[in-house]
RNA helicase
Amino acid sequence: GSVMEKVLQRRSMRMRNMQRAWQESPEGRTMLEFRKSLPSFKDKERLLQAIARNQVIVVSGETGCGKTTQLPQYILESEIESGRGAFCNIICTQPRRISAMAVSERVSAERGEPLGETVGFKVRLEGMRGKNTHLLFCTSGILLRRLLSDRNLNGVTHVFVDEIHERGMNEDFLIIVLKELLPRRPDLRLILMSATLNAELFSNYYGGAPTIHIPGFTHPVKAHFLEDVLEITGYKLTSFNQVDDYGQEKTWKTQKQLMPRKRKNQITTLVEDALTKSNFESYNSRTRDSLSSWMPDCIGFNLIEAVLCHICRKERPGAVLVFLTGWDDIRSLSDQIKAHPLLGDPNRVLLLMCHGSMATAEQRLIFERAPPNIRKIVLATNMAEASITINDVVFVVDCGKAKETTYDALNNTPCLLPSWISQASARQRRGRAGRLLPGECYHLYPKCVYDAFAEYQLPELLRTPLNSLCLQIKSLQVDSIAEFLSAALQAPESLAVQNAIGFLKMIGALNEKENLTDLGKLLSILPVDPKLGKMLIMGAIFRCFDPILTIVSGLSVRDPFLLPQDKKDLALSAKLRFSAKDYSDHMALVRAFEGWKDAEREGSAYEFCWRNFLSAQTLQAIHSLRKQFNYILKEAGLVHDDSALNNKLSHNQSLVRAIICSGLFPGIASVVHRETSMSFKTMDDGQVSLYANSVNSRFPTIPYPWLVFGEKVKVNAVLIRDSTGVPDSSLILFGGALSTGVQVGHLKMLDGYIDFFMDPNLADSYVKLKGELDKLLQR
Ligand code: ADP
Ligand code: MG
């Protein structure tokens, strides 16, 4: 063969020698013993054969049976053992970055190698892999990105798509793309892995691909529903109005302080219904909505606390995993727990958190065992449901809800609400308690509520806006987006697709013929939402890169401004201090970030965060994202090495405002002043309100005719999160087609222009840069 072939052969020999040496070492043997104890090991040969004989197979098995860490490893090992190690190239996708990182670290450890050698990982803006990497764990988003530039996945021998049962948008998307790719790559092997038993759905999608089920082994887990939980904890819940009526039949007695007054009646009825009705038929999917409000968080928290106390006092050793709806809940509950005499005692309880955006060092702690006599309690989002396995968990507390985004295509509005999980999720959560020993699961809802849960959750593709997705589809050189998406396992509504296409046209990413513009091409390589990508590009072109970089990084991480329930007002006034008279949450973010950098230089970052209710962790994350975006834009040739040049106009407030507008448009609301109040109206005549933690909600009036915002979310009303006041001129310049359309009459057009060009610096730069901009926006 060629020289290359010889090199690879030599490397394969070396890989084999190293693998054998490890397997024969004492540590290697111990590790192998452990791996042999996993359920998947018994099926190893069967799996390898099936993969050799079929282009596509579907593997299902209980969480923890060894799919993710073992299956790709079996292939790797057998290729290495047969002297072909350097020729194989395995990719295994994960829905979340944290699992890609955790799993690759685990597999490296199982192979006695440092991470980044044979086994590596790659997630958005971060990764560890080298020229010797032959097994790569990455997020599904990363593989999709690779497919954009490498449509045939040249050199890849095996693709594993993991956790497909979750029906994440990227996984559903990957499945379509790979289906189309397979005929062109007959030697490529595709393995779909799923935890629960809807495997035949995927098998059918691939024309009846063989399915292999790994019989799992988990210890039995006893399920306690709310009725039991109340009994165990001695916690009592009942009607306020009619204690007598209920006192006799059932003793759900009152604990007044637990119930918020204004909602008590509503809660009362629903709780009564739920607890006393033996027949739950009336709660069909239509009433599920009203059910979701019957247990407010404050009852939930106190009840969780009571369950945790019960476990700590009465139960055998073992870690506790608590499922909550989101980061906010995790934070509030953790504050509450820390103040508790028993649970807050660090000599008795090790309290940890597990959520999507935590730092790597923190992640590692979750997997470690607690010292003897210390109870490990992990507060988690539904991330810990399937993709992460914490072995020593014996107790699970399940609040029954998850924050789920849904998408209202009719109003083109994403909704983010904690809603009831599916039965599949509830079972999955329960299963987490039986990894090593028989476990206990405390579901904080009655059995009858569980019975009313949907069987499975709706696929993400059907409940999110499709803007980014459609942009990516176009970059695959697909002609018709709609036609492409109609090949999905479950196709999204055509209205949702039309909305996305309309949006991409409006921001100039697609032209009238639905083809990518230059801007669109650029946006498709930036790993952020197209809106934010556009803002970054504009910030670079207009030489006010620094503040925009901070804003975009902040919007893609999360809000660094903390809002502790009991100190809301203090926290808000702290935020206001950063906002001078800017009427802008985005500007407040920029100032807070800059203040933090200054404080850091002076060694008082901790104090600064504490005083201003800022999350140091989030600011740190923003800091590293900034660096990464900066790097990408530099690579794309939009940012110069000289930072002074990039930031020539960073201090020009009206320019920064205009750039924010250019990115967030058409997220815009007009400010309607009334005598004593203000209201806000969107382009489509919808009414929106401000989030309580927006600086703009603190002013009686706003001296700008418009507010631009990143996101509107339907919670109870339609709320807009972060917003910035902008003058007419911003809209004229960056308001896309709309500025020449309906709204023109509304604008004091001339004034706007004059304002704008009065600033000689700005006018000068605008004229100079207009050419650059035009080129970029060329259709
Ligand atoms: P599956 O993908 O089928 O859910 P995994 O391959 O993730 O299962 O995990 C298999 C087993 O490997 C787990 O049950 C656990 O015992 C062990 N394991 C996985 N990750 C780790 C880790 N980070 N540390 C220690 N053990 C782990
Ligand atoms: Mg797994």
Notes: The chain has 32 helices and 23 strands. Residues 238-298, 737-763 have pLDDT under 50 and may be disordered. The radius of gyration is 28 Å.
